[in-house]
Design goal:
The chain is an alpha/beta fold and 347 residues long. The chain has 2 domains: 17-250, Aspartate Aminotransferase, domain 2 (3-Layer(aba) Sandwich); 254-344, Aspartate Aminotransferase, domain 1. Helices cover 40% and strands 16% of the residues. The chain has helices spanning 17-24, 37-50, 61-72, 86-89, 94-97, 115-118, 151-163, 175-182, 186-190, 220-229, 238-250, 255-272, 298-307, 330-344, and strands at residues 5-6, 54-58, 78-82, 102-106, 132-138, 167-172, 195-199, 210-214, 286-290, 310-311, 313-316, 319-323. The protein has a 7-stranded mixed β-sheet with strand order 2-8-7-6-5-3-4, sandwiched between helices. Strands 9-12-11 form a 3-stranded antiparallel β-sheet. The chain has a two-stranded parallel ribbon with strand order 1-10. β5 (132-138), α7 and β6 (167-172) form a beta-alpha-beta unit.
Amino acid sequence: MAELVDLRSDTVTRPTAAMREAMAQAEVGDDVYGEDPSINALESELAAMFGHAAAVFVPSGTMGNLVGLRLLCEPGDELLCDADAHIVTYEAGAAAVYGGIQTRTMVMARGLLTADVVEPQIRAAGYHAVATRGLSVEQTHNRGGGAVYPLAVLKELRALADAHSLRIHCDGARIWNAHIASGVDLDEYGALFDTLSVSLSKGLGAPVGSVILMKEPDREAAARELRHRLGGAMRQAGVLAAAGRYALTHHLTRLADDHRRARQLAEGIAAAAPDVVDVHAVETNMVVLDLTNAPVDTAGLDEACRGQGVLISALGLRRVRLVTHLDIDDEGVERAIGAITTTLRGE
């Protein structure tokens, strides 16, 4: 039986043989004591890449985002973000439950905030008012179909934040894809954010781990204390850091292949069902299907594709997300096109 073509997410990748070897050879120590050389090296490398003062390795993107937000906002402060942001959609209310942070959201096209929309929403401290202290953006935007924030828009948001004494966090789980798609250097992105969480286990293909970066060196101790309180302090976790370091060296530029395959996937589906997908909206490794006028809904397409060995992800009753990644090759893309288009044609 043919192997499954799993387009649900870029989190489903498995470590390559070479990555497993790098993990097996990793030099390790006790990270709580700051003595794991592989983790220390990873943190230093990423801080340098983004031009930040410090970095802290964490087990997950959700923890990385929560630590980053808490470095910007105290309990009872307000954070502005878009209504489809990962931090308010998929992180189990962590910012509210464990951070005490009030979020206020705006509905934006593809989840991308703009300064003209954000500015009227900023609240100053006053009688019973919850003061706005932070702003969060997502690069690339998950529910926005892998949308890339234009650099000019991010610079306008940075200028707005500076004018109102706000800090900016970036959920940069897939900022690697934005870097490859746009050509913007990582340190140019880094200069725009006070805190930044990057994932090693999505497009880069490491099995686990994220890193929270911060501009201010005196925030590192607070970040490590927050990680500890959340249960994220680890011991000989250098084996995980080694996977991340391998991925940064060997899997970053190849993201262009994922982007090419996502466009190939979108074009193949559009050839049979042009009303279902906007090929021009495919910027990185995600393809969104709109089944509003299709003969099947999300559940029906999922069932039919699963029967043909293709897995997809539901974003709603009539909205589907397809994600290309390290474990998807050209043959897998063609199999997916076949499964999806035959179902949409009612065959």
